[in-house]
Amino acid sequence: MVGDFYTVEYIEKWIEIAKRLPLVIFFGSTRSWRCEDLSDKLKEFRDLPNVYLKASVDLTHTDKPCRSWRVWSVEGEGNPCPHDYDLVESCLACKRCWTIRDFDLKLKLRWGDKGEYVNPHLFD
C-alpha cells in the first residue's frame, strides 16, 4: 500500500522499486495528484503495469482530478466499496483495489468500530 508523495525524487524511488519487483502489486491513493510539480512523475508511476494508484478526494475538496485519474473518494462519487458497504466479508474477497484499474471507488468515512462510523453529512 502506497500513499502520499512529497518530492519527484521520492516518486522516482517508488518507480524504481515497482520496476524491480514486477510480480508485486502496489496499490493506494494519493492527494499529491494536486501538486503540479509532482503530476508527471505520479502519472508515470501510476501507469506501471503492477501499480494501482488512485486520486484521493473527499468532501473538503472542490477540485477534481483530470480524467486520466481514477478516484477513491470518501462519501463522494464512485462505486461503493463492497467491504465498506457490507457486500463482501473482506477486502481480500473483493480485490477490486488491486485488480481493476478503470473504476472509481466510494469509501465510508469511519473511525473505530463499524458502529462508530461517522457520516460526513452530519456536519452539514
UniProtKB/TrEMBL annotation:
Question: Which species?
Answer: marine sediment metagenome
> Any idea where the Gene product domain is?
3-63
One Pfam entry name:
GP88
Name the record gives this protein: Gene product 88 domain-containing protein
